[in-house]
Design brief:
The chain has 18 helices and 11 strands. It folds into 2 domains: 299 residues, HypD, alpha/beta domain 2 (Rossmann fold, 3-Layer(aba) Sandwich); 35 residues, no CATH class. The mean pLDDT is 92. Strand 5, helix 9 and strand 6 form a beta-alpha-beta unit. It is α/β, with parallel strands linked by helices and 366 residues long. The strands form 2 sheets. It has a 6-stranded mixed β-sheet with strand order 4-3-5-6-11-10, sandwiched between helices.
Length: 366
């Protein structure tokens, strides 16, 4: 198809690779911050095509992967109630909690439904006034406008039987947490194009200046990623540290301002736990005080649930770019897509799932 093929043209890819060979003079480590980019890198063998001096690290770019275990356990506790219809995007249903997942709750008789939009959950609430309908609001800034709009519409319609478990996370604070870690290895970032389509990229400019790190907003097709890598490497080789926009066909500096307005109206910035990483200040969204009636954690008194992560899973180190999936002793053995130990193997965007899909159970350690 024309509009896909033009971003997968092997001749253009060859030109980018030749330019990379000409530009790079020393080893560099770049992190992509999107699970979709990670899968494209693995699917098209980009790490094997680029010069050996360039190492790609896989960051916390999958919102399912960074959803903490305690949020999963809260969802499971709510979903098992007989008065609840629990709704979620499909990839959350297989993420393991401390004892089971949402699919197990459904098999045990819970009314758990896959939806494709939070507005689907809102419709279910209208159709079932005798049930409490809960939506699992997970995602980066990309999903926040629709999730906020569902709350706003519920308030406008006076739907008291609708609520959300809000597990929204924000990307720029996560990048700062990575950059300030004592053993940080990241020298440049490929920023997630879909997040910047909503939020713009002005929030990344202070990070680039403060930590002297190039950040390039990048798309998801092979040529997008190769051009993004080339733009980062040029900055590194020239000693520059700026925010540049490779994904110009979708992203503007200011982003989608109406979408940002509805996010700010319904949500407020809060600290947020990131699975395997811990709490990052000002890295999440919670409901504004005037919308507290739609907070499922408060409505069902599960806000005090706390859970420890399994020790065998190294997903936190994978999410921070310290290790690759093949470094995990459980990868491809105890941990597979059929028997996942951590969310990075469960999610379709997880780094472990990408390695398993494209390299198999024998993926090499770094």
């Amino acid at each position: 198809m024309k509009y896909l093929d033009e971003f997968r043209d092997p001749e253009v890819a060859r030109l980018y690779l030749e330019q990379l060979e000409e530009v790079v003079t020393r080893p560099w480590k770049i992190m992509e911050v999107c699970g979709g980019q990670t899968h494209a890198i693995m699917q098209y063998g980009i790490q094997d095509l680029i010069p050996d001096a360039i190492t790609l690290l896989h960051g916390p770019g999958c919102p399912v992967c960074v959803t903490p275990l305690e949020q999963i356990d809260k969802a499971i506790a709510i979903a098992g109630r007989p008065d609840v219809i629990f709704t979620s995007f499909g990839d959350m249903l297989r993420v393991p909690g401390s004892e089971k997942d949402l699919f197990t709750v459904k098999a045990e008789g819970g009314d758990v439904r896959v939806v494709y939009s939070p507005l689907d959950a809102l419709r279910i609430a209208k159709e079932n006034p005798d049930k409490e309908v809960v939506f699992f609001a997970v995602g980066f800034e990309t999903t926040a406008p629709a999730n906020a709009m569902a709350i706003k519409q519920a308030a406008t319609l006076g739907l008291a039987n609708f609520s959300e478990i809000v597990s929204q996370v924000l990307v720029p604070p996560a990048l700062e947490a990575i950059l300030t870690a004592p053993d940080n290895q990241v020298q440049g970032f490929l920023a997630a194009g879909h997040v910047c389509t909503v939020m713009g990229y002005h929030e990344y400019e202070p990070l680039a200046a403060k930590y002297q790190v190039p950040i390039v907003v990048t798309g998801f097709e092979p040529l997008d990623i190769l051009e993004g890598i080339l733009m980062v490497i040029r900055q590194l080789e020239e000693g520059r540290h700026e925010v540049e926009n490779q994904y110009r066909r979708s992203v503007e500096r200011a982003g989608n301002e109406p979408a940002q307005a509805v996010i700010q109206e319904v949500y407020r910035v809060v600290p947020r736990q990131w699975r395997g990483i811990g709490e990052i200040p000002r890295s999440g969204l919670g409901l504004q005080p005037e919308y507290r009636a739609y907070d499922a954690e408060l409505k069902f008194s599960v806000d005090t649930i706390q859970t420890l992560e399994p020790e065998i899973c190294i997903s936190g180190e994978v999410l921070q770019g310290w290790k690759k999936p093949g470094d995990c002793p459980a990868f491809g053995k105890e941990c597979t897509p059929d028997t996942p130990l951590g969310a990075t193997m469960v999610s379709t965007e997880g780094a472990c799932a990408a390695y398993y899909r494209y390299q198999g159970a024998t993926a090499q350690a770094s």
